[in-house]
């Protein structure tokens, strides 16, 4: 997958703002070396294509790699390259940071998706836009490699009305008056309303909303609310969001909803990734 807004040179500059003093002083400029990143644990690979681009910019030839989304076992090499030793050492921590963090997210996501699909194989896992600032493109790629999809890539693509919008409009009734205009002007978009109130959810659907995001409700509360909504709007989009984690996923995955929205996947532990550099 091509990521349009990754600044690869900036990633390199973070670790090597000018030059590698250690390698220069050791006289390693023109030595040839092999670099291989390998995993010490089972994982779902991510970030190797970006590592390959780092290699390319540093004049390192990529000999082999496992693509994002593939599974790897302890000892498997995820990417292998050869080049001048100084350039190889420059790439070392840059690719290690890229791969072990994104692979950590992809691996956690894969386990989360498997847990959901054990109860409902057709229920999608969706991730919020609440990742660490500056990491969005890589974080999104990582959750996709693990089998999830982004809930919203940004404010430009989806109409999702929160209480904050309603407050600024002057209240819930004022927001409902806006829905016919939204349906007309954004005719190809779905309109979702965040609500934990059954009465407001039904009123929003009657006014033309396509679905409800059920925010921070317990499984029992969602079960009750979804039954009320399905009786009148069987095709309404219902999303469960807030407080959904690996330890309680089974309860939510069994509900009559269309998707699970979570932020928890972005806080994954990096995998145990090793990098071996040898002379040629």
* Molecular shape: elongated
- What Rg do the Cα atoms give? 23 Å
Helix amount, in percent? 40-55%
Structural class of the secondary elements?
Answer: alpha/beta
Identify the notable features of this structure and list them briefly.
4-stranded antiparallel beta sheet, 7-stranded parallel beta sheet, alpha/beta
Describe the structure.
- With 280 residues, this protein is of the alpha/beta class.
- 41% of the residues lie in helices and 21% in strands.
- The chain contains ten helices and 13 strands.
- The protein has helices at residues 8-15, 21-25, 48-57, 85-117, 136-145, 163-169, 172-185, 198-206, 219-232, 249-253, and strands at 32-39, 43-44, 61-65, 71-72, 77-84, 125-127, 149-150, 159-161, 191-194, 211-215, 237-241, 259-262, 273-279.
- The strands form three sheets. It has a seven-stranded parallel β-sheet with strand order 7-6-12-11-10-9-8.
- β11, α10 and β12 form a beta-alpha-beta unit.
- The two termini are 32 Å apart.
- The model has no long low-confidence stretch (mean pLDDT 94).
Write the layout of secondary structure elements.
Elements: H1 8-15, H2 21-25, E1 32-39, E2 43-44, H3 48-57, E3 61-65, E4 71-72, E5 77-84, H4 85-117, E6 125-127, H5 136-145, E7 149-150, E8 159-161, H6 163-169, H7 172-185, E9 191-194, H8 198-206, E10 211-215, H9 219-232, E11 237-241, H10 249-253, E12 259-262, E13 273-279
Parallel strand pairs: 6-7, 6-12, 8-9, 9-10, 10-11, 11-12
Antiparallel strand pairs: 1-5, 1-13, 2-4, 3-5
Helix pairs in contact: 1-4, 3-4, 4-5
